[in-house]
Amino acid sequence: MEILFILIPVSIAFVALAIWIFGWAIKNGQYDDLEGPAHSILFDDDADMIPDRNDKPKTEPAKDSKKP
Measuring CA to CA, which residue among 67, 45, 49 is closest to residue 58? Predict the structure, then answer.
């Protein structure tokens, strides 16, 4: 029963700390744009990765195979 005299103030301190951290995050703008990062993956700039009809295939130079 005596442990409750320690656990209750410790738990109140943890709750107060969690509320303070949550308030700090709100004040610093952590929750301003919740949908932007989720949509940004859809608008990724992949235009240079999509092949075009006029693109020539990339060929690697022939490797010299010298046998020792």
Answer: 49
Give CA angle at 25 (27, 18), nearest 5°.
120
State pTM to two decimals. Answer: 0.51
Number of domains in the chain: 1
Vertex 28: Cα angle to 23 and 33 (nearest 5): 100
Q: What is the DSSP string of 29-62?
A: TTTS-SSHHHHHTTT---GGGS--TTPPPP-PPP
Residue partners of 25: CB distance under 8 A and separation at least 6: 31
Q: What's the average pLDDT block by block, 10 residues per block, for the chain (68 residues)? A: 94 98 94 79 68 70 62
Indicate whether 62 belongs to any domain: no
- Output the six-digit token pair for 8: 């209750």
